[in-house]
């Protein structure tokens, strides 16, 4: 597959030479945003390539452009994780093309599995909506301890645990092959609710980051913030 002469394909063991570049960019991107994905090692990324559970994007000259990989949990859930694009290639449509290919790969390998994602970014939420994902509560995700243990290296792990793994800065989205809307429907829903999504993300980041810094004004503010979050989530789910 090509996107502006960029080749997007399933990664192979030979692509392990890009693993360090990929993980370095993952870490740098997380720091720049001030919110974090779970840290991954070059060895872990290379393993995903070796297993055929990753998608990579390269220029015809072999320059690394982007990456995403598949994780599986309990044999029932699949996550498309670690989406990252080199800074000079962002906002070019590459991220969407990578997500489409890794989603297709997930459906090929695990046709019965539920595919989910956690993200703090509105752009990724839009891409997911275009593929048929729907926003869900954390209770609808895998409860596999290994999955949640992977969040320990995220800068927001304390927030996650303080909320008893029921909420965090990330928003959960899910594609259920046995019970789902068509991509056109979820895409339309996102477009209609885009301002609600944006408000929802901003409120979560404001509320949770204040709590993490210990600057909440009081329980009254906390209850008000919780009510606002619940109302916005209700609007997203309906």
Automatic annotation (TrEMBL):
Domain annotation N-acetyltransferase: ranges: 6-166
Pfam families in the cross-refs: Acetyltransf_1
InterPro entries: Acyl_CoA_acyltransferase (IPR016181), GNAT_dom (IPR000182)
GO molecular function terms listed in the Swiss-Prot or TrEMBL record: acyltransferase activity, transferring groups other than amino-acyl groups
Biological source species: Flavisolibacter ginsenosidimutans
Protein origin, superkingdom: Bacteria
This protein's name: GNAT family N-acetyltransferase
Keywords of this entry: Transferase
